[in-house]
User: What shape does this take?
Amino acid sequence: MITSKPRVRVQAGSSLYRPVAGYLRDQPVINMPVPALRDRVDDVRSAWYRANALATDAALNNGWIAGVVEQMVSSMIGTGLRLSYKPDGRVFGWDDQATGEYARIVEKRWGIWSSQPRECDAGARYTVAQMQAAVIRQWAATGEALGQITAFRRVGAESFTKVKLIPSHWLSRETREYDGLQTGVYLDANGAATGYLFNVRDRFLGQKQVIQSASDNYGRPVIIHVFDGEASQVRGITPLAPALKIVRQFDQLSDATLTAAMIHAIFAATVESDYPTSDVMNALKDVEEQVTDLEPGRLAGGWDAFMDAKVGWNRSVNIDLGRNGKIAHLLPGEKLKLQSSEHPNSTYESFAKFLLREISACLGVLPSDLTGDYTGDTYSSIRMGIAKKWPLVEYRRKHIPARFTQGIFEAWLEEEIDTGRINIPGGISSFLQYRTSLTRAYWRGPPKPQADDTKASAAHATWLKMGVITQEQICNDLGLDFEDVMEQLSRERKMREAMGLPDPVLAMSGGSGASSQQTS
Assistant: This one.
């Protein structure tokens, strides 16, 4: 009998054999929980306290984290950000020379004010550079930094403008949608901050709530709040948040390894025996220790009696290696086994470095910056690592300490112009009208690290000869102000001419090195 293969007719348009495409189309096969997808403001609000508390604790009690935070301070500001004032003088009809002269006056005035704690700090403790360092440390721990601009007269100070640093946890986490309050920040219809709700200490009430405006009616900043985030985010969160679990794992690994090593150091030898513990321990004692342990007039019983009977023989055979070493005669059938420490084992260092690499990647620094270990690094690897990480350093510098300092600078410059210490056409009215144009500034930090200064200088010289780089760009790479360098070179040239000294630049370039005065 011949049977035919059964045929199944599939209706046209049926999805039985329809191909499927798209992201996660095999999701039912991957048995994994699906996290909630929500606005970043909600993520920050729910995790802010716990994440920032753990990060603050790590920065205080973990040497790796504390060290890398200080390294971030060093890379971002060095000894302090330097002002490069670039106002738009065209609002007054100024040319480049007049604008430059005005800018130099402002820069010198700022240098005086920012370096005097009595002038710039409400508590008369910090310079602006120290405030910048505190801002970076606060940002690393909590993802944000706050400051308040105040104005009051202090004896011995010229200016009224003062800055007061505010701990991040003073900013309330309360949310009231009907008031436009989001985690302590009052927002307008466009999402701009108009005020802040703080929980501050009170000597009588213990704690009270205070509302501060973001700026006054003339646009002068009152509260400076800096953080880095995403859409809808109004509060910062520590950049260490993704690595907090890894930090905890590293601490656990270190503690467990140290505990195991200490146990092996304490229990350095074991005795394999079927006899009672007291008898075994007594057998490990020397003759003097056995006799000393016996009370006067007391006869040892059991195994003690047996060991006491051997004292006469042991007295005639004295094997002494000093108090730090001796030979023990164990009972029959016993074995003394010396233990060696197996911790840390061969995999400890590689696994510990793996954890530290993840922490360094989260913080945006090189692993060698975190560990201080340059083993295996080469000139090329260090140069490539710096080239990849340095843009992140510059980005953070611009948007955290520089932005904070910019708010201080704007408030200070307003007072300088209002009091007449710095003159512009139209005075304070012109400043309020052209605030944005007159407060444009750049904040320079330390230069990009170089693995080899000789090779870097040779590259600068080559690019300068090719005409693809300027002397100002070279100064920027070195962390120097071009105008400061030019002014200093001019002063030095005039001093050499007055004293009849040769020009070192001409000497190095193959010239005679004689000054222009000598040549004339």
